[in-house]
Amino acid sequence: MKKKFLVVVDNSKELKNAIHFAAQRAKNTNGSLSMLYVIDHAINAQWSKVEHLIEQEETSEAKKVCRSWAQKIKENFGIETEVILKLGKRDDEIIKVLTEDSDIRFLVLATSEEGENPGPIIKSLLSSKMKDLSIPVVLVPGSMSEKDIDSIV
Description:
By secondary structure, the protein is of the alpha/beta class. Helix content is about 45%, strand content about 20%. It has five helices and five strands. Strands 3-2-1-4-5 form a five-stranded parallel sheet, sandwiched between helices. Helix 2 links the parallel strand 2 (about 30-40) and strand 3 (about 80-85). The radius of gyration is 16 Å and the shape is globular.
C-alpha cells in the first residue's frame, strides 16, 4: 500500500512549503499526494440562489487553484495529484477525509512565517480537533527554503 500525503490547500503563502515537502516525500517514498480544498458555505447570503452562485464561484476558483498546483507538482516532481474538493467547515472536512481514506498516512501543513501564530488550520486542528486526528501531522516551517526542505526529505 502506498503512503498517501494530504495537503490542505488555501491561499496562504506558506502552502508552497507544505506542497513541496509532501510532493518530495511522496516521490522519494513512491507514495502519492492528495490535495484537499474546503469551500466554506456561503452562510451570509440571504437568498439560496445567491448562496448557490457564491458557492459555484468559489468552487470554480478552488478547481483553478488545485489544477495549477497539480500541474506544478507534475512538472517538478513527476507525480500525479488527487484533488479533493469539499463544501463545509474546514476542520470538520479534514477530519472526514482522514476518516474516509485509510490510505492517507500523513497530514502535511506549513506554519506561518509570522512567529506567534502558527496559522488558522494548525491552530484550530491542534486545539479542538486533536483527539480526532488518527495520523501524524507534519508541520513544515513556513520560513524554510526549498533547498532546506530537500535536505531533510
